[in-house]
């Protein structure tokens, strides 16, 4: 992602990358080691250059990396975050799951539990990293950390709301909503 972003020109097209990771904790640039409480499963911890604290990625979670030119779009980082959150909320609405964002704690929440985490890096006016939406995954590793740096933060997934879809299918739907949200006029 970093290499792609560094090589971009003003003519480079934006891209969305949909992935599903093997079990891994990622720790953002603001991440504090004490937010990894225990690691009985010896899950790898990878330090990244994205914003935010520590989170977990694993099978059953769709991650969409947002490689986007903010300068060309004409809006800033906060607007990008809101647009990404709104795309997730729109997907969940289609699945009859009521969700919302929080200005002071980026991500998407359902009943005070986090269902999607957001972490971005902006370099030369272009973003990389992105959003992780919990679809149908093992949530136990979230209990090994203070998710996103918040002690006691509950985490949920779509499966808890009767949604049983493959993570990749949800990622494809999310990507379509992201295209709409990101390209709407500023």
Quick recap:
This protein is α+β, with helices and mostly antiparallel strands. The chain has helices at residues 2-7, 70-73, 77-94, 167-183, and strands spanning 15-19, 24-27, 45-47, 54-57, 61-69, 100-101, 108-110, 113-123, 126-134. The protein has a single domain, classed as Bira Bifunctional Protein, Domain 2 (BirA Bifunctional Protein, domain 2), CATH 3.30.930.
Attribute tags:
BirA Bifunctional Protein, domain 2; six-stranded antiparallel β-sheet; globular
Query: Helix coverage percent of residues?
Result: 10-25%
CATH architecture: 2-Layer Sandwich
Percent in strands: 25-35%
Question: Sheet with the most strands?
Answer: 6 strands, antiparallel
The CATH top-level class label: Alpha Beta
Number of strands: 9
Distance between the termini: 25 Å
Question: What is the CATH fold-level name?
Answer: BirA Bifunctional Protein, domain 2
Morphology: globular
CATH superfamily: Bira Bifunctional Protein, Domain 2
So how many helices?
4
Number of domains: 1
What class, by secondary structure content?
A: alpha+beta
Major sheet: arrangement of strands:
1-5-9-8-7-6
Radius of gyration computed on alpha carbons? 16 Å
Arithmetic mean pLDDT: 96
Query: What is the ordering of alpha helices and beta strands?
Result: HEEEEEHHEEEEH
- Ranges where pLDDT stays below 50 over 5 or more residues in a row are none
């Amino acid at each position: 992602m970093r290499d792609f972003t560094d090589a971009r020109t003003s003519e480079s097209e934006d891209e969305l990358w949909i992935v599903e990771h093997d079990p891994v904790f990622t720790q953002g640039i603001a991440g504090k080691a004490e937010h990894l409480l225990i690691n009985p499963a010896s899950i790898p911890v990878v330090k990244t250059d994205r914003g935010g604290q520590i989170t977990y990625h694993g099978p059953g979670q769709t991650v969409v990396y947002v490689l986007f030119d903010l300068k060309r779009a004409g809006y800033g980082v906060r607007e990008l975050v809101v647009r990404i959150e709104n795309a997730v909320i729109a997907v969940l609405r289609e699945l009859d799951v009521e969700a919302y964002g929080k200005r002071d704690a980026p991500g998407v929440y359902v009943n005070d539990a986090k269902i999607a985490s957001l972490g971005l890096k902006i370099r030369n006016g272009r973003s990389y990293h992105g959003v992780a939406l919990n679809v149908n995954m093992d949530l136990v590793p979230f209990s090994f950390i203070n998710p996103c740096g918040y002690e006691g933060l509950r985490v949920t997934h779509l499966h808890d709301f009767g949604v049983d879809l493959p993570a990749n299918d949800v990622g494809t739907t999310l990507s379509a909503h992201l295209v709409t949200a990101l390209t709407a006029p500023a």
